[in-house]
């Protein structure tokens, strides 16, 4: 019996999704709950499992295609019979060659090391979670050479360990290395270098914009095309803030919470937005209206292997510093692991972006459209400054505010920035209106 699985209604407001990768091909027999396809919406990346057991007859979309909600994704033959003669031509023409199986948005379940790992057919790419793929890169292991013992042949961290010990189904790595350890949240992998043109011949690489990178390109282009960007930059002395942060971080460590500068910056931003509410707003370009929000849902730009994403701290004005620190850490880890939840994405009212140690002197961030303001916080450096007629060394960083000059005047953006700086330079002000 033929069964067509439709693209489900993944979340509020989602009307379409882009196919990221297929985990099956026509002719495969799939089990119930086995991952079939990974799709990406405006809010999250989701793996869709098979609701039934059967044999794959047709893949209706190829990688990179955008499917509408309730459109058929895949056809299964539920009785296990061979696919009908008419199906493969249509399916393979639409789906193309077998799509690479890459990262899954859902966290994998590592199997015990003792579980047998089945060798993978030659040429077939590995299934693995983003964390396992990151660990493989860290250990310089070709993950496609590792046999997987997880569900559906998924490669686990134990499989990586077995591979290094020479007990995995695909053999021993070329070089010895240290035992496998848990990988701490990593910075986004640097983009692969573009090959140089060698003498006597031309070499080039064409990289299709797909998935998160495609959405980033679309959103950035729309933001620059629509909003009138204006950036104001000023220095901020965070010497006292650093001392307060260190004391609170030491106390919060006992609760298992890592406190960075970001929770303090979020608090300062919320306080400034209360004084300058027009910056806590989005533009409705279709109606020509500025929508000023009473909620404070602050986006935190986070770097991932797939590109820059913006998970959102909901109700930032109602959270304590420790609660903010805990939520920011959770959102960042989920984003880097590719398992951000739909409810954690979108509908932010203002965004903060920081590159930490890579923050440079200052930058001019692009607005997270349709928002009208984005704050850039940059690297903290020991800097000679004049205090009471004396040159002293202080911890100084630059703060930049980019706003939509169509609706935010320069003096308003500058006053907003100075309000944030005033609060960060005197952290006692942070505790006047604590949640």
Radius of gyration: 25 Å
Share of helical residues: 10-25%
What does the average pLDDT come to? 80
Secondary-structure-based class equals alpha+beta
Say how many strands there are. Answer: 19
What's the quaternary structure here? single chain
The H-and-E topology, N to C, reads as EEEEEEEEHHHHEHHEEEEEEHEEEEH
- Categorize the overall geometry: globular
In percent terms, what proportion of residues is strand? Answer: 15-25%
- Figure out the total of helices: 8
- Note the gap between the termini: 58 Å
- Low-pLDDT windows of residues: 80-110, 171-190
Give a short synopsis of this structure.
This protein has about 425 residues and is an alpha+beta fold.
Describe what you observe in this structure.
- By secondary structure, this protein is an alpha+beta fold.
- It has eight helices and 19 strands.
- The strands form five sheets. Strands 9, 12, 15, 16, 17, 18 and 19 form a seven-stranded mixed sheet that branches.
- Strand 4 and strand 5 form a beta hairpin.
- Residues 80-110 and 171-190 have low confidence and may be disordered.
